[in-house]
Amino acid sequence: MARDPRFDILFEPVRIGPLTAKNRFYQVPHCNGMGWRDPQALAAMRGIKAEGGWAVVSTEECEIHPTSDITPYIELRLWDRRDLAALRLIVEAVHAHGALAAIELCHNGLNAANRYSRDIPLAPSCLPVLAGLDPVHAKAMDREDIRAFRAWHRRAVALALEVGFDIVYVYAGHGLSLIEQFLSARTNHRTDEYGGPLANRARLLREVLEETLELAEGRAAVAVRLSAAQHCGGGSLTLDEVAEVVAMLADLPDLWDFCLAGWESDSVSSRFAPEGYQESYLRRLKALTDKPVVGVGRYTSPDAMARIVREGIVDLVGAARPSIADPFLPRKIEEGRIETLRECIGCNICVVGDWTMAPIRCTQNPTMGEEGRRGWHPERLPPRQSRDRVLVVGGGPAGLECALALGKRGYEVTLAEAAPEVGGRVLREARLPGLASWLRVRDCRLQELQTLPQVELYPASVMSAEDVLAFGAEQVVLATGARWRDDGVGRHHTLPLLFETKLARLTPDDLMDGLRPEGDPVLLYDDDHGYMGSVLAELLCGEGREVILVIPAAEVASWTRNTMEQHRIQKRLLELGVRLELAKALLAVEDREAVVACVYTGREQRWEVGGLVLVTARLPRSELFAELCRDRERLERAGIRAVTVIGDAQNPATIAHAVYAGRRFAMELDADPEAVEAARFIRPVWRP
Ligand code: ADP
Ligand code: SF4
Asked: What's 339's domain CATH number?
């Protein structure tokens, strides 16, 4: 199909210094938990972005020196020449598809505890390092240190050029980089020519930028990544100050890349910020320079992308998450296939990889992080290897992805879903406060499924064992999901609690079904530590209910630190007036009295409650599997060769896990078992 002319503007070339980006799609730097540890996998991932049509594909931050070591987090390194081979892999993969390769050179300054290199952390002023709560201070850099840093940066630029990068970054963003720490009065308390007034604080940025431009000498473009504002507390850089810096350097760099600091303010989840919430910052800064500007905003709709270019908010549409969710986003728009876009849902599961030092995963794109290890491609799937027909029971994220990927491989698939609509948990959870965009997990798959003649969808079809046996498919996949427990078993208690009460023990499933606790106050016991407890507290507060949130941890929703939401969740609950009872576990409910105990001292308290909601653990819905497996001969007689359980029905986990399980079954059906097994392991670190 031809491209919609409304989007022509997105395919105009953009001059960046001595180079030309072939269109306006710019994959800004993003971490991925692969970095220096697994450069082949990283290069494969970046190469697929280039193949997907991004004009510029950037690396994540690349540490330029061992004094910038943020172990245990895994980014790229350019500590010395031995790192060049890994970087070359990335450049080659990006160039192979005609994109420009950008490298985000970075010194982490105060953010680097140097746990591996054991070098002395360096910062503008002597302050405790930001990484973790390490009891380590950074040394206040003297003039010699500043000279050394500039020399390291120059060396890194020269090496990056030698490897063939087209765009070299001077990084002053996200509060993470030394140069920005010099810019900000929050971290720069110096009284010499690098401290005090803004012009002094910006001295290092100017020096490094000028030196980088001199080295690039028209061979490569030089980008400055700058936080448009810092949201890090007292003394942070304001938009006014940043505007002053931009005005000072206006047309010096070849490209401005504006972000927000810290990272958690730049990559806000959809629960807390809409698409394009950075626009007011971008608009103000763009007006100060004639050089091209790239900015992000988790834009997933081509209309919004075309609008921000037309309105002069950016010249290049920056994307990290939208490019993760759909590496082929530009190509799909160009080829007029926007109905096949996998729009990012803003869940921030991709961010978890970085925080947990594991390869990146994405809810929408199960191939993310598996391009190198498993050889998965977001668009191309291997053709079927047999004529087996597949019955998928359950139309949640696992079942939908499984049916879609099998259908694309050419298998004949029937998907049966008990509910009147497919979607499973995303259909239900998307109705909860702040989670509406999660429905995209269902919508994009459903849209594509409806175009595949070899896949048949049967909603409102509860499948019994007899139905499955009578159906006559050779392969049966059970993606029947899970249900929340109502007996208190979770992480803290692994055995059921004592409930001697007539109060209903409601679970998240019950609340999603429309049931509500009898009276107030509602005791909401969250031993799940993810988003669900806080979302339900919000739901109940929004309906005027009085909520006591009991959590056997010192903060709410601890796991959501990994999605960079924890601080926002705690703030929201405090603002809503939820009574937070932290570091307490529910022990029992006797009549209308809840017994809770401090998790440290065991000291008990008793509170009168009017309702009870338990957000603890989940159990697979495994009845159908048990019934089918009761008599294996019966399966054989029915011609069923295999019954496979996937997703939450196997092990309840995230939506991303379920989607991945669906894709994995589809990819591994009839595959060579040895190849499948070999892909389990990350290849060893690649050094020359
Ligand atoms: P997952 O996250 O693993 O995809 P979900 O809970 O989202 O799991 O989806 C499971 C889906 O399976 C639900 O929509 C549920 O209605 C459906 N389901 C469960 N049992 C049956 C059954 N026996 N027949 C048809 N559909 C079923
Ligand atoms: Fe978007 Fe979620 Fe995928 Fe990240 S994990 S790119 S936020 S859909």
From this structure: 3.20.20.70
Residues 6+ away with beta carbon under 8 Å from 307: none
Residue 684: inside a domain = no
Is 419 close to ligand 1, i.e. is its CB under 6 Å away? Answer: yes
**525 in active site:** no
Residues 499 and 469 placed together within one structural domain of the fold: no
Indicate whether residue 493 lines ligand 1 (CB < 6 A).
Answer: no
Q: Is residue 109 part of a domain?
A: yes
Q: How far is the CA of 468 from the centre of ligand 1 (A)?
A: 14
Closest C-alpha to 609, from 492, 510, 524, 482: 524
**DSSP H or E run through 242:** helix 239-249
Number of domains comprising the chain: 3
Per the annotation, the verdict on 266 as an active-site residue is yes
Among all bound ligands, the one having the nearest atom to the CA of 270 is 2
Query: Please, what are the averages of pLDDT over each run of 10 residues along the chain (688 residues)?
Result: 94 98 98 94 97 98 98 97 96 98 98 97 97 94 98 98 98 93 96 98 98 96 94 87 95 95 91 94 95 96 97 98 98 96 98 95 98 96 98 98 98 98 98 98 97 98 98 96 98 97 98 98 98 98 98 98 98 98 98 98 98 98 96 95 97 98 97 86 54
Tokens 């107030």 — which residue? 520
Contact 325, 345 (CB under 8 A): yes
617: helix, strand or coil: coil
From 417, 421, 456, 664, give the residue whose CB has the most ligand 1 atoms within 8 Å, as the site to mutate.
Answer: 417
Q: Which residue among 26, 30, 31, 528 is the active-site one?
A: 31
Atom of ligand 1 nearest to the CA of 462: 24
Query: Of residues 26, 73, 169, 171, which has the active-site annotation?
Result: 171
Ligand 1 center–CA 363 separation, angstroms: 18
Q: Is the pTM of this model over 0.90?
A: yes
Query: Does the C-beta of 396 come closer than 6 Å to ligand 1?
Result: yes
Q: Single out the residue of 146, 123, 121 nearest to residue 135, CA to CA.
A: 121
Do the beta carbons of residue 389 and residue 474 sit within 8 Å? Answer: yes
CA dist 170 and 225 (Å) reads 6
Q: How many CB atoms lie within 10 A of CB 5?
A: 7
Residue-range definition of the domain harbouring residue 63: 5-355
Dist CA 386 CA 513 (whole Å): 41
User: Which ligand is located closest to the Cα atom of residue 426?
Assistant: 1
Catalytic residue among 65, 153, 174, 492: 174
